[in-house]
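Changelog entry: the Putative acyltransferase record was regenerated in this release. Current contents:
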Amino acid sequence: MSKLRFHALEPLRFPLINRFYKSYYPAGKAKKDEIIWIGEQDGSIICCVRFKQFEQYQLLTGMLVHPEKRSTGLAKQLLNASQNQINKQPCFCFAFSYLEELYARAGFETIPDNELPEPLESRIRRYRQSGKDLIPMRYEH
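Regenerated structure tokens:
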């Protein structure tokens, strides 16, 4: 087994990330203006996370770990590897409630909706209206 490697996705490999989402999380879809970090092993993407950029902050979104690799610590490793990106601007995420503890261990704190920047506050409301059980979180150094 080859070494696990974490890094920002090279633009030429962008189509691979949407293939990965389509296979394991069809609701997820990367956009070319996002910064994407991946973990790969043996030339295959096994986890990813995206950072959607706003003027003065960013939204961590779309974290996905290959189903066969879940509960192995990969998500935490990916968050650690992308720490420089997380630290570039204030970073928020919308955690599914069952993942709140994972993000908390990685340095995110649960916040009330009204502490989100306005575009994110309206976005989380829309997501919840569609039935998603999400918790707003902010990264605290």
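Residues 5-139 form a domain with the Aminopeptidase fold (CATH 3.40.630.30).
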